[in-house]
């Protein structure tokens, strides 16, 4: 049994294939160089082969001793040590592979590699059966947009090769801090007033007391969802389904999400958006000749006077166009280089333009500290032919939905312009 176990363990390890160039380095003292410009597989197999050979030899010899009725404790001890060494080598190789970014032991994907909801759907176990006309219900879930590994956040997009590429349109979610929740609502203490009485104090003198007042507020989890019905002939075109899910259903959720994160009014099934809660811009009368670019710089000052630092700017597409097209006296563009595709910034702030804001409306704030998104359920796509009369009409239903809450810790961390 031990022999079979050793072979199984070795097969498992070899399944975690090492391939391609890597870094230079050595492992296990005088063992061969495992990581150079050549394929390291041979070196790894040689190192493990030594251990496996020792284990099998000791095992076979010990079995002969047992048949002969001989009890030799040294063999049992040596065999146990070899088994332990084999386990340690396997773990060290796996850990090293993870550090080199080739194996993500938490997700089974190479580090940075992600699968979109559409890709998960067409690769699911039930998809092949669906193409054969069987009744089915299959689902896929895509992680929230962030810049972390294993995410499809627009700020850190992994390179994807092939005919299809996931949508790269930036959304407001990227600006916020993000978390998860298992509750249907969240209660957080929100700063109500802050009086800073800090002052210079003499030795043994009485210290002044500052006043910081909080009040508990409840932020409910809300659902965003939609569905479409399509002919089941689309099941024969996996690439089309993947594209439709990612470019239409998931992006449809994100567009609605943008509007809720900004202008949700907090009633019914709506979130309370940061634009709804933000303080009004109050520095517009400083200079009547100010351009929109000047106005945004003054808005940064308004936030600093409220002890906040701006981390993002959201405006309408037309207002962004006005900024991009401003030119110097010699005709050159001031804020953009039309030959590059770098992330748009103004005064160092990342910009997001959205049709959720009308012309003249904009929002600036400390998105990272002033508010946070909590996902109860990441964006999920389900496909079935059992809804209503789908089966007899040869149709499939695709549904996308997500559940999230937006917690606004401090409304003074945001400033908006809301023209009449």
UniProtKB/TrEMBL annotation:
Pfam families assigned: Phage_capsid (PF05065)
Ranges for domain Phage capsid-like C-terminal: 171-416
Subcellular location: Virion
Signal peptide feature range: 1-19
Domain of life of the source: Bacteria
Coiled-coil blocks: 72-99
Gene3D superfamilies: hypothetical protein PF0899 domain, Major capsid protein gp5
Database matches in InterPro entries: Phage_capsid, Phage_capsid-like_C
Kinase among keywords: no
Keywords noted in UniProt: Coiled coil, Signal
Descriptive protein name: Phage major capsid protein
Organism, scientific name: Deinococcus navajonensis
């Amino acid at each position: 049994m031990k022999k079979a176990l050793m072979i199984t363990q070795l097969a498992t390890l070899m399944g975690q294939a090492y391939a391609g160039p890597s870094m230079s380095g050595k492992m296990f003292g005088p063992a061969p160089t495992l990581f150079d410009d050549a394929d390291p597989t041979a070196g790894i197999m040689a190192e493990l082969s030594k251990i496996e050979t020792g284990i099998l030899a000791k095992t076979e010899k010990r079995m002969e001793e047992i048949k002969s009725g001989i009890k030799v404790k040294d063999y049992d001890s040596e065999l146990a040590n070899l088994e332990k060494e084999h386990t340690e080598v396997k773990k060290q190789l796996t850990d090293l592979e993870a550090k080199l970014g080739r194996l993500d032991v938490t997700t089974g994907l190479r580090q940075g590699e992600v699968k979109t909801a559409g890709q998960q759907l067409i690769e699911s176990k039930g998809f092949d059966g669906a193409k054969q006309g069987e009744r089915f219900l299959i689902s896929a879930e895509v992680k929230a947009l962030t810049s972390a590994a294993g995410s499809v956040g627009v700020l850190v997009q992994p390179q994807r090769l092939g005919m299809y590429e996931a949508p790269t349109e930036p959304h407001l979610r990227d600006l916020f801090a993000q978390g998860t929740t298992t509750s249907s609502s969240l209660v957080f203490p929100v700063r109500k007033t802050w009086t800073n009485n800090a002052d210079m104090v003499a030795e043994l003198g009485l210290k002044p007391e500052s006043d910081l007042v909080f009040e508990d507020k409840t932020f409910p989890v809300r659902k965003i969802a939609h569905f479409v019905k399509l002919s089941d002939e689309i099941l024969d075109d996996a690439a089309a389904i993947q594209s439709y899910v990612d470019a239409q259903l998931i992006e449809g959720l994100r567009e609605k999400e943008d509007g809720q994160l900004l202008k949700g009014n907090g009633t019914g099934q709506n979130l309370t958006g940061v634009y709804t809660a933000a303080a009004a811009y109050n520095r517009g009368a400083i200079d009547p000749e100010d351009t929109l670019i000047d106005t945004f710089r003054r808005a940064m000052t308004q936030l600093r006077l409220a002890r906040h630092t701006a981390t993002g700017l959201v405006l309408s597409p037309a207002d962004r166009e006005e900024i991009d097209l401003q030119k110097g006296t010699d005709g050159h563009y001031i804020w953009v280089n039309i030959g590059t595709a770098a992330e748009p910034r103004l005064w160092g702030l990342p910009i997001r333009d959205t049709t959720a804001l009308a012309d003249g409306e904009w929002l600036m704030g400390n998105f990272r500290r002033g508010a946070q998104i909590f996902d109860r359920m990441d964006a999920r796509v389900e496909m079935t032919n059992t809804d209503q009369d789908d089966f007899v009409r040869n149709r499939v239903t695709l549904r996308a939905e997500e559940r999230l809450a937006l917690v606004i810790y401090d409304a003074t961390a945001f400033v908006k312009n809301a023209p009449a």
